# Entry
Amino acid sequence: QVQLVESGGGLVQPGGSLRLSCAASGSILNILRMTWYRQAPGNQRELVAAKIIGASTYYVDSVKGRFTISVDNAKNTVYLQMNNLKPEDTSIYYCNVVHKLLGSSWGQGTQVTVSS
# Structure
């Protein structure tokens, strides 16, 4: 099983920045994809950014040009750098990994609040 621990959420003013981290441990070999989702109250969970290991990245249109997903293989950590944050980015952000043999694992979520 892959264990995920997220950090980096908080309260930020519009236009500000945050960097979310998701550290993976356990069966970290054969991870195929690392992804950030978010879910606001009353909304469905939304895929925000995805990194296919050794290949491409994907961003939802609403965050293109503002968010960047990256992976530090030495630290087994995936990051989400969020710049120019907007109130509509307020959500709980979840890290997800897909493992070749073990399937999908989720982090506990971290709250991001964008407000003046």
In short: The chain has no helices and eleven strands. The chain has a mean pLDDT of 93. The radius of gyration is 14 Å. Residues 14 and 86 are 5 Å apart (CA to CA).
